[in-house]
Amino acid sequence: MRPVPEPDELLAIAVKIARAAAETARRMRAEAITEVDTKSTATDVVTAADRAVERQVVGALRELRPQDTVLGEEYGPAGGRGGGTGVRWVVDPIDGTVNYLYGLPQYAVSIAAAVDGVVVAGVVHNAATGEEWTATRGGGAYRAGRRLVGSATTRLSQALVGTGFGYDPARRRHQAAVLARLLPEVRDIRRFGAAALDLCMAAEGTLDAYYEKGLNPWDHAAGGLVAEEAGLVVAGLDGAPPGPELVIAAPPALFAPLHDRLAAYDAAGGP
Q1: Which of 103, 107, 179, 189 has the fewest CB atoms within 10 Å around its CB?
Q2: pLDDT at residue 121, as a whole number
Q3: pTM, to two decimals
Q4: Chain centroid, CA 155 distance in Å
Q5: How many H helices and E strands in the chain?
Q6: What does the pLDDT look like over 217-256, one tens digit per residue?
């Protein structure tokens, strides 16, 4: 087994690949979106660009780190060649596909590196704007050279909270019911449509907090590390790790009150 590289080395690889992948996404959208298909429902689009960008990312990782494994949104898990290294790359080629389809500037390439199951490096690159967030475990989170520290808001009633919704109508009904109960207790709600970017905005304090049900590992692996390294608590309900049941990201002062309300309103329940 090859020695595991340091998080900074893994981050450098992720950043290089994410920037090139973001350029491909931008170019393909400029040339025209083709081969629109669907995943779970007719409103959950996946484009040729998703697939092309993921193939590019996986191909680049294969050249640089051929023995590592990869988990991608479009093509699932892929094993490394030869002996394992303990490194697994978690890739969302275009997070915010509907935004991408409509030309809204909120879609990103997200790449995280996990060692023995623990994410140690991650980058989220907004392909529309060029904004980029990075983090290494224990090394902090950054955007444009500025270390991120999250929001200083301490009262939930003053918090701007980000969230997202699934594409299944039954799940949306449940999420809407949760939101209807939460909305009077916060400053306001924002829904931007890209979980990785939502987490990064919470990390920099553009959002005070964020929660969502139904996220997959590629949705929150890199963005979750950015938020965590900015000092936010990133978790599920009742001490559970963040996962498909629920992801909450908030500064410590906001996490407990937001968590308790989401638990009371059954945010992790429903379909």
Answers
A1: 103
A2: 98
A3: 0.94
A4: 25
A5: 7, 15
A6: 999 999 999 999 999 999 999 999 999 999 999 999 999 9
The rounded distance, in Å, linking the Cα atoms of 196 and 67 is 26
- 252 and 160 share one domain: yes
What CATH number does residue 37 fall under? 3.30.540.10
Taking residues 185-213, what's their average pLDDT?
A: 98
Of 229, 263, 228, 222, the C-alpha closest to 249 is 228
Continuous segment of H or E residues that includes residue 151: none
12 and 115, same structural domain?
Answer: yes
User: Could you tell me the two tokens for 98?
Assistant: 């509907």
What share of residues in the chain are helix, strand, coil (percent, to 5)? 40, 25, 35
How many domains does the structure of the chain reveal? 2
CA–CA separation, 10 and 115 (whole Å) = 10
The reply to whether 131 and 162 lie within a common domain is no
Residue 184's domain comprises 156-264
Are 177 and 235 within one domain?
yes
Q: Please state, in angstroms and rounded to a whole number, the distance separating the CA atoms of residues 75 and 64.
A: 19
Over its C-alpha atoms, the chain yields an Rg (Å, rounded) of 18
Domain annotation covers residue 2 = no
